[in-house]
Write a structure and sequence with these properties.
It is built from one helix and seven strands. By secondary structure, the chain is mainly beta. The strands form two sheets. Strands 6-2-1-7 form a four-stranded mixed sheet. A three-stranded antiparallel sheet has the order 3-4-5, with no helix packed on it. It starts with a strand and ends in a 25-residue tail after the last strand. The protein binds zinc ion.
Length: 117
């Protein structure tokens, strides 16, 4: 599935100003081995409820939840067991990227969300 970097203001806020790096996986392929993440909920520009699941103990970001696409989970690169082959295939929300963010002009970039097929 796809992977990329999101520069929306919510991602920046939860990542110390950096974009969120995530790879979208089928929810059925994801196994959380222990614990129960805490979820911060907000509303997207289009009105969907968006959740950000994070570790309640250390605060590490784990995955996102988009209620309009319940079968898919964008899993943050830092939550993957091995992210050494993580590849940024697209950039989203570059309209809110800051002048000091580095945008690779070789990677497809979208003003807002990456259009779903
Ligand atoms: Zn975002």
């Amino acid at each position: 599935m796809g992977s990329g970097a999101c520069f929306c203001l919510d991602c920046q806020a939860s990542n110390g100003g950096a974009p969120a790096y995530a790879a979208v996986h089928q929810k059925s392929d994801f196994l959380l081995e222990k614990g129960e993440p805490k979820v911060y909920w907000s509303q997207s520009e289009t009105g969907n409820r968006i959740g950000r699941a994070f570790c309640a103990d250390c605060g590490a970001s784990i995955y996102g939840i988009n209620e309009s696409r319940p079968d898919y989970l964008p899993i943050t690169a830092s939550a993957l067991d091995d992210n050494s082959d993580f590849k940024v295939m697209a950039l989203s929300w570059v309209s809110t990227a800051k002048p000091w963010h580095t945008l690779d002009s070789n990677i497809p970039a979208f003003e807002k969300n990456i259009p779903s097929e």
